[in-house]
């Protein structure tokens, strides 16, 4: 019998842990609150009198988020993820409530300044908050349950994002910016109560890094020296870069270039969303797969998803474009659950926060760069050739990572 397959927990076993169920509620509400706020952010930014100001508002949260991620991961490793979350969550709630006030009440020249300041603060807090949220399950789950847990989290987050975005749009239309922001604050108030209860019911000894011997660089060094993580994180960075470029730039520009209406872009975006939700959900059926098999599925999915972008460039009709967008979503769905799941299972607990900060930078942190690259290349080649060229580069990069993981993952097993 394969000992590894017998020891990795199933989804039902993970969900049977009371602390994980409580954490999952926190995680879902936090993701939904983020989606609620992002809807209002986009609306407020689009109302600026200049597209330059719109870009400033949208970037104001992303820049500090990336800048503080590494130190946020170090904080989670030094003091414990639960403690960090109990500090960041009330700050997030207060900032969302402040956003509700300033986005509607401040007028004139000062409005942009205040909106930028609050958005910057939300992004900075997120830099500390996100690595702690990724690390926290390691404080009450054994290694055998952590990879499965991340699959459950990812599936739940897809529905939470959709629900939050839908609710945010409805509240924005019926109650304005303040209604959606207040709803986000209310969701986080519930998470505070749950985090307080979790603090009183520890289930295992928490391993933290020694303050004198730990640094941000240790996480980066660990990834660079790891025979598998350096390739899986590169894969995640590449596929997130190309998929963000496809969704935010290539698909809408292709629709406009082809003379299609906005519904064509909406259909492609929706197909991608359905695909990624199905692809993520399918990973819950793969908890018994070997570690090597999971790694190859994750990197292989990224390769196929990148290749689908080539298909978008070659597509000559709306139906083909929508089909390629669906395939792109379906095949990228298993990437994060499989590859980030491996990281959570394999990385020492004293380094988890810092390693996940590297993953966060490689995934969400560089996504805006994809749209920028697309715009520059499209100006020279046209949007269809841009999709083909960028898709081919991403496919080749992911294929190279696949070969490296294939070679380096022989004999890799779930650590006890």
Polypeptide structure, described:
Keywords: Cell membrane, Membrane, Transmembrane, Transmembrane helix. Pfam families: MFS_1. This is MFS transporter. It is a multi-pass membrane protein. The radius of gyration is 21 Å and the shape is globular. It folds into two domains: 201 residues, MFS general substrate transporter like domains (Growth Hormone, Chain: A); 197 residues, MFS general substrate transporter like domains (Growth Hormone, Chain: A), CATH 1.20.1250. Helix 7 packs across helix 10 and helix 9 packs antiparallel against helix 16. The protein has 416 residues and is an all-alpha fold. It has 16 helices and no strands.
Q: Outline of this structure?
A:
It is a multi-pass membrane protein. By secondary structure, this protein is an all-alpha fold. It has helices at 3-7, 11-15, 18-46, 51-79, 81-105, 109-135, 143-199, 216-225, 229-258, 262-282, 291-314, 318-332, 335-346, 352-365, 367-381, 383-408.
